[in-house]
Design goal:
This protein has a domain at 63-135 and 187-279: TolB, C-terminal domain (Neuraminidase), CATH 2.120.10.30. It is built from one helix and 31 strands. It has one helix at 47-51; strands at residues 59-64, 67-72, 79-82, 88-95, 102-108, 113-118, 124-129, 159-160, 162-163, 175-176, 188-194, 200-206, 210-214, 221-225, 234-238, 244-250, 256-263, 272-278, 282-288, 294-300, 311-316, 323-326, 336-342, 348-356, 361-370, 376-379, 386-393, 396-402, 414-420, 426-433, 440-443. The strands form eight sheets. Strands 4-5-6-7-9 form a five-stranded antiparallel sheet, with no helix packed on it. The longest helix has 5 residues, at 47-51. The chain is globular.
């Protein structure tokens, strides 16, 4: 039998106050912010969408022997644009953005040079004759006693060439105002580029310097960079906005090659190194992307064989974000990416791969790569030809092949132009044989 006990612990009567309880301390759980959503890879565009670039011109210009010719990719009779006189040679060519005109840089045997702006039918539109060279260095302006000098101000002397129609009859010598120091005797233009806005030409000089030529009859020659800030520049090209220029030149010590950026105006400051490579490497070519925020370039071993895995790279204007676009090693064990051309709409880049040949690098393949998705498409090239040039047109990608066309001419004197269709097929648009006489160019009807 169980009895009552005296243990009253834990009992509580109705009229007793309620006891207080210490609240339990909750466990602290450390949480991390959620990771940012992974960037979705762009879906590859179909080849048919990539190969027909928006905003591309229809007309292309190409060399045929020593002459300059043109043809419309959509189909037209080829025509001669310019044939240099005896003792003259074409140094550089740059079509206008729309393709309705072309600028031709011509050198003469006496060391002179001129720039001709020509229509597709050969009509001469504008002539820059005896272009004054850029100054040797940036020159600080001299201030008179009554003037208030501007700290750290620099200026280029203005230079105004004679603008003449063809033929040029006894043009007066252009003058450069006091303060400019042209490099005497040895300066000569070596490259030319038409601005995307269509109103200026950029001319690079050897042994250095860049100048801009204003189109439309003004005839103004405006120094952009002096010799000391652009030593032996090549490939000088306007940015898509026309506010900057890019070029490749030797570094300050001459021991490396540098891809530079500079403002298009003299007061914008000196050039800035974007990519610098040591002497055992070389930059072979570069090109602006249409959005103006980055450039493409090829870099590899400077060996003459050009078969040492030169790859295609992209870099942003701030020097960051260098990334591999295409590796030649993905096409062949020992190879180079040789020619390349970004499409005018910025969606794709076309490029060729070369491999070691018997005497020199030999053509291997032609590719079109989606820049956003990274997918590459192999283009079936006409058999037996080496691709030697690329153009983007409103009718599609156009390439040139050099080779013997079974017409009895040396291989280097015969070529064909092909347009790549949306289905990937190569459609011939021109066959040409260049001999001692007038080139025989035959349009190919589809």
């Amino acid at each position: 039998m169980t009895g009552c006990t005296d243990d009253t612990a834990g009992y509580q009567f109705a009229n007793d106050p309620r006891p207080t309880r210490q609240a339990a301390t909750p466990d602290v759980v450390v949480t991390q912010p959620p990771p940012p959503p992974a960037e979705q890879a762009a879906a590859p565009r179909p080849f048919a969408e990539l190969v027909v670039a928006r905003g591309a011109p229809d007309r292309i210009y190409f060399g045929a022997g020593a002459e300059l010719w043109t043809v419309a990719a959509s189909g037209s009779e080829p025509g001669r644009v310019f044939a240099p006189d005896s003792g003259e040679s074409i140094v550089g060519v740059s079509p206008s953005p729309s393709g309705d005109q072309v600028a031709v840089l011509v050198a003469s045997a006496d060391g002179g040079s001129s720039v001709l702006v020509i229509a597709p039918d050969g009509a001469l539109i504008e002539v820059f004759d005896r272009i004054p060279p850029p100054p040797a260095a940036v020159v600080a302006p001299a201030a008179s006693p009554a003037a208030t000098p501007v700290p750290d101000a620099t200026e280029f002397a203005a230079a105004t060439p004679v603008l003449a129609a063809s033929p040029v009859i006894e043009p007066a010598q252009p003058t450069m105002s006091a303060g400019a120091t042209p490099l005497a005797g040895t300066s000569a233009p070596r490259s030319i580029d038409w601005s995307p806005q269509g109103d200026q030409l950029l001319v690079g000089f050897e042994p250095g310097g860049l100048v801009a030529l204003s189109l439309g009859g003004a005839g103004e020659v405006r120094p952009v960079l002096p010799v000391t800030e652009a030593r032996s520049p090549w490939g000088a090209a306007w940015s898509p906005t026309g506010e900057q220029v890019a070029f490749v030149a030797d570094g300050e010590r001459g021991d490396r090659q540098v891809l530079y950026l500079a403002g298009a105006e003299p007061m914008d400051g000196g050039p800035r190194a974007l990519v610098a490579v040591p002497s055992e490497r070389a930059i072979f070519a570069f090109s602006w992307l249409p959005d103006g925020r980055s450039l493409l370039f090829t870099e590899g071993d400077p060996s003459p064989a050009r078969t040492t895995n030169a790859d295609l790279w992209q870099i942003d204007l701030d020097g960051e974000g260098r990334r591999l676009v295409a590796s030649a090693g993905s096409a062949a064990p020992v190879a180079d990416i040789d020619l390349f051309a970004p499409s005018p709409d910025g969606r794709a880049v076309a490029y060729t791969v070369v491999v070691p040949g018997d005497l020199d690098a030999a053509f291997h393949s032609l590719w079109v790569r989606d820049l956003a998705a990274g997918r590459a498409y192999l283009v079936q090239v006409s058999p037996g030809g080496d691709v030697s040039d690329l153009w983007w047109t409103s009718a599609g990608l156009v390439y040139r092949t050099d080779g013997d066309l079974d017409q009895g001419a040396p291989a280097t004197d015969s070529f064909e132009l092909y347009r790549v269709g949306p289905d990937g097929a190569s459609v011939p648009i021109l066959r040409a044989t260049v001999g001692a006489a007038t080139p025989a160019a035959t349009p190919v009807s589809e």
